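Possible regression after last week's pipeline update?

I re-ran a chain I had predicted before the update to compare outputs. Posting the input and the new output here so someone can diff against the archived version. Not blocking, just want to make sure nothing changed silently.
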Amino acid sequence: MQRWLDAGLVVFGRTATPEFGARAITEPVAGGPTRNPWDPSRTPGGSSGGSAAAVAAGVVPVAGGNDGGGSIRIPAAACGLFGLKPGRGVVPSGPDVDEVFHGAAVQGVLSRTVRDSAAMLDVLAGSAPEGPYGVAAAERPYADAVVDDPRPLRIGLTTESTLGGPVDPQAAAAVRDVGELLTGLGHVVEESAPAIDGQRLAGDFLTTWFAMVAAEVAAAREFTGCAESDFEIETRMMAAIGRSLSAPRYLATQSRWHQHTRALAAFHERYDMLLTPTMARPAWPIGEFDLALPVRLAARGLLAARIGGVLGRMNLVEKLAVANLEPAPFTQLANVTGRPASSLPLCRTSSGLPLGVQFVGRLGSEPELLSLAAQLERARPWAQLRPSLPDTPSAP
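New output (post-update):
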């Protein structure tokens, strides 16, 4: 925030997120759901859903977001915006926090154009004295990267969900369409994916995620004096599972994060970029992932009895995983591995909803991701596409 203010930006408000930014939807009990400007019955995604809705609706040209599992890229895809998740350590987390979620959660923005995201990264990027990393500065301003086309790239393409779940045919077709566009621009595109066990990746991601939520709930309670029952039921479930984890299990999970990183690094020895759908489906209806009443009642009983460890052995974990990961199973890999990734709004569904495609690059490839995004933006512009918003009565 201080870097924004020092750059002369006018910051005038806050936007909504899910509680603790812990879900891929923005439907907090406090304040109610944030709606997608392209279809108010649908989600803008999460956790930076309020920011995405504000930019898509034309309230602001750029809004801040952070991304610990897709929270910039998922809303960008849902709302027809560009979203870049910088690599680990490129943007510091702030003077009071050395890193968030073991460096998997990073700060960035959502914007209507690649140019604006590049300019904002120039403002935000750069190591801080109190940070854990000394990341090398880019060779030239990120804003310069959007001017020239990238070199011919070798790109691996996959449309298969890492969780083995369904991928909407329109989302898969969007990726193949972009693959053809890339080929026409001189890049080499081949069917290929990293040799990663997607189920294991999801489990390792969620195990650490639940532990982080438990720590955040504890910190919030200490800071505010609030009761456990003051949090949303889904938050309490995640926190209870997190508290039930043993230290050896947690450390084993963290060790496997490095295995996933090595697997993606091996993929990048052959390919410059990985191309996937950003989400497995278009933005889904608000309320679709509300917990059913029987599940909610069962969870309340277990939480009241303080036997949260039982939650970890029930299918409630699987329900949370489906609600958080199955609609967008492609984004967590870049967070776990610390690689930069972007979502581009290059396609639309038959009904006009935005569809995003994701590129995952090597460490330090933010300039290349921006250059490629700008090339694709020139080939298929999207900034002129705007949702039809209802008229607002003028003030008397």
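Follow-up from reviewer: compared with the archived run. The first strand starts at residue 62 and ends at 67. Marking as no regression found.
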